Here is the input.
Amino acid sequence: MITHPEKVLFPGDERGPAITKGELASYYEAIAPLLLPHIRRRPVTMERYPAGINRKGFIQKDVSKGFPAWLERVEVPKKDGTVHHVIVTDTRSLLWVANQNCITPHVWTSRAPRLYHPDLCVFDLDPSREEPDVLRVAALALRDFLDELGLPSWVKTSGSKGFHIVVPLDGKARTGEVARFANAVGTLLVQRNPEDLTQEFSKADRGGRILVDTGRNGYGATFAAAYAVRAKPGAPVSAPCTWEEIERGAAGPRTFTLKTMAARAADKGDLWIELHRRKRSLRRPMERLQKMLARGQ
Here is the structure.
């Protein structure tokens, strides 16, 4: 049961009418068949907005109190103890998360119980300014570079400013190996186009360039789940899309929204359905990458 479904989470503006908590929950219930395969058994961090997106929200990792007995959680070690993350396993648990005024579930790149063995490698292209063509070229360059390494990749809009590019893994590499691999890919990608790309995390040091953020691959790091709504005006969705849509500029970071996703899902289905059927080892790609680094490519 959704409590206070009439609560406005997204105030109305020029993009459209207000969106309520009930509508957010209805979206997650409808999109669950597409979303669940990508979020299932990943530790969830909830981005909650009890008073709507125009008021300050907060991030909640630990769920130690106030949860129903049926809700699955996973105990994760941290520096001075443990964190009990929610685990989404079905529509019921997804709606429990939505009922906490959680607009965006953020997830790990690994799944319980194999938390130290990611099954995804994630690259987040985060632009400093709105330059759609530059961002599109950067995304395609990353795709092509990963292809050089023998790795297929999938893309989704971030629902914010950029794109998330994802590589499915066989789960044999540990978190540190995946993080080092991703950082090395970012290093070489920036070397190929230093005018438009950077690995400088500080906005002051980016010089207007796109951040190739590989930090999503560290232990405990998260990224917005596929099909998640983002806490931005208009309720944009972090929506899987095709590389062809990126090539022709048909998909931008906030192109797809809570209001438009039903029609898109009915038309396209899950564009990431093949992702976990094409898992790859990082052994040979890492060997190729090391040779490139040695040659300064």
User: Anything to note?
Assistant: The mean pLDDT is 95. The first strand starts at residue 8 and ends at 10. The helical segments are 21-39, 91-99, 132-148, 175-192, 243-247, 261-268, 283-295.
